[in-house]
Design goal:
about 450 residues, alpha+beta, D-amino Acid Aminotransferase, Chain A, domain 1, 3 domains, ten-stranded mixed β-sheet, nine-stranded mixed β-sheet, 12 helices, binds 2-OXO-4-methylpentanoic acid, B_amino_transII, BCAT-like_N
Length: about 450
């Protein structure tokens, strides 16, 4: 262990113990202080060894330090395309069940703390090869995004507000010590993948190509630390409505037994680890006839989110209508659809863009709301509607909430959506499908 011999600390065992715990920190001690003419570069060397991603650690296959260099900008230029030799054909849109069908190709980009981002490849969709000791398999070092590509009747392909997904993915990556990346560069690569897979984009209303960017820690290492190797991959799935009943209203169960997130936790990030613990409670409520759990917070039973969706409640307030959604307090996901609905509703209120059929006296609130308030609104006839929003679900009306042994009944419109969600949905989908021109709709070209 030349590292230890060269240090100024005297006890081998003590040093080894510190080394195990504070590997990254100790690196600054591992370069012998030189004498004579090289003495002046010693501080710089020490600094460099911390800045060079995992330099020494990797060679010992330990890897603690995180790549701290700038995200690479150049990687789209190095894209390799390996075309599948067994191309599948897109199934009829009617037969699509959300998340079961995948296109011919996927995008993969490896990362290591030594090299940064490596060569991106668009290659045949297929199994990944992973070490059983990969960090993702033990400590859930995995994040993902959900975005959609649309194709209009002239064949024009667009993405909806993809910059927001890139931003959120970077914030999720940073939260679980996965490497961050250049958003523009990844978006360029995703566009190339979508362009190659464009024939898989269904054109029917309510259908699209769901894009699933994902990142996992792949280092072979069962210690708990930032991984020194990761893989970013993107797969595509042609989809129809998220819920099997299409846009029909769903029933939620406001659970007081389980929680999804807590202050200071990870609820605001799109981590795989936020979703697995929700499956068992969801199975339980499915047996009682509810589609999803509505996650609450605190003894006041504040509404947070549904787990696949953000929540909106519509209340009658005198002669006004209030659209309420819980605030981004760190416990709920900053949804792209949520943000879009709020922005459209606020434009209506300010008069920047009037949405036909929305009331004149309209209030848009990002504020805490409790189950008691929802119960009272039901009792007084002031509960207008309640719906979820998300990339997969778009808008999903809710007709019933199971809460403390009773059901709260929520009014719904004739075809499910209510008087507020329907006009906003029309505006949103128009911008998604490109029938209403908007900056949110980003073209995908070759
Ligand atoms: C999305 O709306 O894109 C989601 O990520 C929900 C998903 C878990 C299906």
């Amino acid at each position: 262990m030349s590292v230890i011999e060269s240090g100024s600390l005297h006890s081998y065992n003590a040093v080894r113990e510190i080394f195990e715990q504070y590997n990254d920190f100790l690196i600054t001690f591992t370069i012998p202080a030189p004498s004579g003419m090289f003495a002046f570069i010693w501080p710089a060397l020490c600094y460099n060894y911390k800045a060079i991603p995992n330099g020494r650690n990797d060679r010992r296959s330990r890897g603690f330090a995180q790549y701290s260099g700038k995200p690479t900008r150049y990687f789209p230029e190095h894209l390799q395309f390996i075309q599948t030799e067994k191309p599948g054909t897109p199934p009829p849109s009617k037969s699509l069940v959300f998340g079961h069908t995948f296109t011919n190709h996927m995008l993969t980009i490896p990362w290591s703390s030594l090299e940064g981002w490596g060569t991106p490849k668009i290659e045949p969709y297929g199994p990944l090869s992973l070490e059983p000791s990969s960090t993702v398999l033990h400590y859930a070092q995995t994040i993902f995004e959900g975005m959609k590509a649309y194709r209009d009747e002239h064949g024009k392909v667009t993405l909806f507000r993809p910059d927001m997904n890139m931003k959120r993915m970077n914030s999720s990556a940073a939260r679980v010590s996965l490497p961050t990346f250049d958003s523009d560069a990844l978006l360029q690569l995703i566009k190339k993948l979508i362009h190659i897979e464009r024939d898989w984009i269904p054109r029917e209303p309510g259908h699209s190509l769901y894009i699933r960017p994902t990142m996992i820690g792949t280092q072979k290492f069962i210690g708990i630390a930032p991984p020194s190797e990761a893989l970013l991959f993107v797969i595509c799935s042609p989809v129809g409505p998220y819920y099997p009943d299409g846009f029909k209203p769903i029933a939620l169960y406001a659970t007081t037994e389980y929680i999804r997130a807590a202050p200071g936790g990870t609820g605001a990030y799109k981590l795989g680890a936020n979703y697995a613990p929700a499956v068992m409670p969801q199975k339980q409520v499915a047996k009682m006839g509810y589609a999803q759990n509505l996650w609450l917070h605190g003894p006041e039973h504040y509404l947070t989110e549904v787990g696949t969706m953000n929540m909106f409640v519509v209340l009658k307030k005198g002669d006004a209508i209030e659209l309420v959604t819980p605030p981004l307090d760190g416990m709920i996901l900053p949804g792209v659809t949520r943000d879009s609905l709020l922005s459209l509703a606020r434009d209506h209120v300010s008069g920047t863009y009037k949405i036909p059929k929305l009331p004149e006296h309209f209030i848009v609130s990002e504020r805490p709301i409790t189950m008691k308030e929802v119960q009272e609104a039901e009792a007084s006839g002031n509960l207008v509607e309640l719906f979820g929003s998300g990339t997969a679900a778009i808008i999903s009306p809710v007709n019933r909430i199971g809460y403390l042994g009773k059901d709260i009944h929520v009014p719904t419109g004739e075809d499910g959506m209510g008087p507020i969600s329907r006009p906003i949905w029309t505006e949103l989908v128009g911008r998604q499908m490109g029938t209403i021109p908007s900056d949110w709709s980003v073209p995908v070209t070759a």
